[in-house]
Backbone:
């Protein structure tokens, strides 16, 4: 009798499995834009702020993604520069912890000003081999992985960091090391990505695909077709705006090719598609202050749009989400059972995706910190920014000055509350010190050779105003 009961139970389980097959693991496509700020596309990133989109750039395919997915009005890049931001995005660890806080341009660390008041630390330029990336996490879970386009995290191939396929450890020049790889490599990487997806679908294997765009550099090059399309719009665009709009039209066309391919492969209902960028637009990012190379909102707050299973179409979340959150979120969506790497600073925001953007993100620490101890495009010099609740604290290392902003009613950072709220400044400044100590962050030191009579050698002073038309100036 007992044997018959066991046999019946086994038959019932087999029947249920046949009638209710397990959901296959979802696919992931990450489109990483280069230097497109919060208001640099035609998608309004914040339902409450009409100015959170460009006045002249058009991204119709990105608009379709947003209409079918969720926008995050308060998504933050881990750094205002590409190398540290990308490293944190892939590892879930901050640039402060990784010691990857700047970039290598032209073979030199241009974040050091020989005549600055402080001497910034020397940053790592190569993603350490021991760091586990989002690709490695998924690869171990049975995913096929690929990265095409800009890498810019050192000279070691992405193949050594968890990617099965790649077109190389490309910098700003792409595989050809060209002065401007846009739009040639834009369409080339798109074709590679579509071929990769098709092969994985045919093989019945889940996939993770990175398509990492190159900068268009002052509008850069664009296809003749894109330029003709923009000129046909008419209106009062000047030459710079036409060049920018044409370069971005190419970007959107390539993005549309990817979306169409996903539909043709029949996997749209089980594929998460993400669009975000590595830092803000160079120059001005109205209505936000500052831009690329600054810890102002314009340098850090960037677009983030995601479409996929269970996500409410057209939703807009106002919960703060950061680049370090991507790895734990993707791992959770993929139902990865292996423990995440030690030291992960991000938290999963899956609960936001399934509740129309409402809720919270649980991270190991209550605060979120951007550590940028280098000279770059900000007049205040090397700095760190701490976010907690509605408040943002900025610490300038040259002068020791502390600034405090309430982002709930001052996203443009126009009113410094430091004198009005000294207790809050002291509380957040102590948290910042504790965080940097816990991360063993590299810090700037006083420069004994500083001479106030000599000019600085680093061109500084990124725009902090809010005027402008919301375009994209440079890489």
Residues:
């Amino acid at each position: 009798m007992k044997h018959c009961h066991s046999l019946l139970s086994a038959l019932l389980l087999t029947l249920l499995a046949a009638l209710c097959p397990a959901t296959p693991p979802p696919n992931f496509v990450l489109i990483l834009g280069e230097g497109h700020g919060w208001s640099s596309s035609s998608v309004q990133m914040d339902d409450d702020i009409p100015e959170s989109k460009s006045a002249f750039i058009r991204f119709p395919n990105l608009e379709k993604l947003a209409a079918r997915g969720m926008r995050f009005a308060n998504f933050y890049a881990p750094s205002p520069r590409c190398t540290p931001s990308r490293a944190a995005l892939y590892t879930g660890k901050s640039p402060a912890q990784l010691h990857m806080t700047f970039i290598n341009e032209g073979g030199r660390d241009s974040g050091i000003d020989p005549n600055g008041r402080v001497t910034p630390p020397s940053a790592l330029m190569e993603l350490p081999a021991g760091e586990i990336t989002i690709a490695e996490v998924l690869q171990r879970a049975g995913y096929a992985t690929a990265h095409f386009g800009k890498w810019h995290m050192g000279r070691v191939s992405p193949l050594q960091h968890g990617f099965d396929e790649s077109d190389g450890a490309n910098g700003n020049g792409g595989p050809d090391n060209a002065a401007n790889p846009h739009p040639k490599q834009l369409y080339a990487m798109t074709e590679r990505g579509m071929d990769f997806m098709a092969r994985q679908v045919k093989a019945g294997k889940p996939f993770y695909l990175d398509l990492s765009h190159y900068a268009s550099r002052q509008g850069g090059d664009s296809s003749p077709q894109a330029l003709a399309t923009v000129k046909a719009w008419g209106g009062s665009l000047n030459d710079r705006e036409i060049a920018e709009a044409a370069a971005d039209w190419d970007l959107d066309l390539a993005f549309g090719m990817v979306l169409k391919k996903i539909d043709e492969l029949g996997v749209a209902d089980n594929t998460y598609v993400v669009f975000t960028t590595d830092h803000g637009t160079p120059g001005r990012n109205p209505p936000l202050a500052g831009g690329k190379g600054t810890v102002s909102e314009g340098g850090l707050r960037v677009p983030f749009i995601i479409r996929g299973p269970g996500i409410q179409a057209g939703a807009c979340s106002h919960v703060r989400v950061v680049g370090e959150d991507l790895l734990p979120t993707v791992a959770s969506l993929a139902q990865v059972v292996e423990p995440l790497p030690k030291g992960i600073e991000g938290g999963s925001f899956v609960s936001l995706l399934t509740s129309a953007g409402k809720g919270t993100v649980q991270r190991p620490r209550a605060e979120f910190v951007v550590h940028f101890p280098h000279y770059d495009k900000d007049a205040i010099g090397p700095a760190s920014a701490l976010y907690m609740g509605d408040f943002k604290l900025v610490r300038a290392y040259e002068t020791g000055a502390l600034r405090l902003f309430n982002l709930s009613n001052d996203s443009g950072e126009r009113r410094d509350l430091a004198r009005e709220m000294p207790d809050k400044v002291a509380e957040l400044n102590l948290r910042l010190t504790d965080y940097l100590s816990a991360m063993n962050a590299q810090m700037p030191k006083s420069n004994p050779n500083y001479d106030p009579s000599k000019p600085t050698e680093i061109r500084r002073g990124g725009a902090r105003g809010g005027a402008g038309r919301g375009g994209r100036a440079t890489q």
